Amino acid sequence: MPVDFSQLDFSILMDHVEIVLTVAWILLSYIVRRYTKRAIRLNQKIEHDKKRQRINAVDNIFNLLLVVGLVLVWSSELQNIAISIAAFMVALVIATKEFIACIVGAFYRASTRPYQVGDWIRIANYEGEVTDSDWLSTTLFEVDLKGGSYTYTGRTTVVPNSVLLLHTVQNLNYMRRYVTHTFSISRGTDDVNLFSIKEHILNNIREYSEHFHDVAIRYNSLIEKRLDIKISGPEPRVRITTTAEGYNVFTVSLFCPTDEAVEIEQKVTEDFMRFWYERRDLSIMKGELND
């Protein structure tokens, strides 16, 4: 009975055309390879060693043609798979970019060694003593450096290592023993000449610094040699300025032990206030006598 091809459902074959082509290509490659190798073996004019070399070459050529043919047949599917893999990798990198940046920051820290546990450091807006450092973060005990008390605030800051790639690291470890402490005292416009107080304050600061003066000189020189820079100190300095609002500003700078900075500041402030009120009262008395 003749076959009616019009009644065959070719949609199934069209949906699986890659599979059909793959099977056809594998069968064709197998048949052609087999008969080619057989023809070489039956050729009496070719030496035995030459036959082996040609058969090996045929195997390699047909293996390559088989792979190339399969790649061509499945090119669209492979392209979709490649796009999916690329999209997955991009999504993975985006999702873990902070983690990757932290790991890279850890390698940067290990290679440059800008700080170690126990150092006082400043990273971006974070500052304090390093208590722990791992592959992902650095833990700091916050120290009140901006406020000038140089004491622990009780707060702990965990800084991700990715910050190391974007911001500079300042090692403030030398400040643990000695620090250039600067503070200002502001007073309103009045009849007191602050320059008349300046020398008295400097004498008092020298008196408060006498017990550590020699050590401060040596430590100051040590820091300058280690950092290869010139830093202020160890002699105290006083600067008198004014503001646009009309205030007189009395600024004191001294190189002193970190744990004595606040105590000396309070003593100097007390001396300044005493001298200032004495000069003010004296000025008022002179004004009343002149009247």
UniProtKB/TrEMBL annotation:
Keyword RNA-binding part of the UniProt annotation: no
Keywords, ordered alphabetically: Membrane, Transmembrane, Transmembrane helix
Domain Mechanosensitive ion channel MscS, first and last residues per copy: 103-173
Record field: transmembrane: 12-33, 54-75, 81-108
Keyword Membrane: yes
Single GO MF descriptor: mechanosensitive monoatomic ion channel activity
Family matches, as InterPro entries: LSM_dom_sf, MscS_beta-dom_sf, MscS_channel_2nd
Primary site of residence: membrane
One GO CC annotation: membrane
Subcellular localization: Membrane
Protein's UniProt name: Small-conductance mechanosensitive channel
